Design the sequence.
């Protein structure tokens, strides 16, 4: 038997580990679909959303708008596009979380309901968990 070593991850190690958990989870959560989209402006990645469904729920991992493209409605457009696609596919709800220095007010303005807050989460920052029930029709 070889000796165990603990090492710091490289970016490619992080992706391999992420794939390991995806491979494991598929036996429990086989009904999934990708709901990830991005916006390009003049060939530049301006904004993106990374989200995936499990059964009838979509979970947003990330929504980010590059600094110079903020306040142009890109976040709203992406989130609405993802919601519309999820609704068409019969998804029932969307879950996401954000930090106090990010966008809790944005999600409230988009109809998301606050489930709970971790306060403080780290340092003086709060972490907010939100849900949005999707109406079918």
Sequence:
């Amino acid at each position: 038997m070889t000796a165990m070593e603990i090492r710091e991850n490289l970016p490619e190690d992080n992706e391999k580990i992420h794939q390991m958990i995806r491979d494991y989870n598929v036996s429990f959560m086989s009904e999934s679909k990708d709901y990830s989209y991005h916006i390009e402006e003049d060939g530049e990645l301006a904004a993106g959303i990374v989200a995936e469904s499990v059964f009838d729920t979509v979970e947003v991992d990330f929504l980010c708008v590059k600094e110079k493209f903020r306040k142009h409605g890109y976040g709203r457009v992406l989130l609405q596009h993802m919601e519309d696609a999820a609704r068409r596919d019969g998804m029932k709800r969307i879950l996401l979380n954000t930090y106090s220095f990010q966008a809790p007010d944005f999600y409230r303005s988009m109809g998301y309901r606050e489930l709970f807050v971790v306060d403080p989460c780290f340092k003086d920052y709060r972490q907010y968990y939100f849900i949005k029930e999707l109406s079918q029709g």
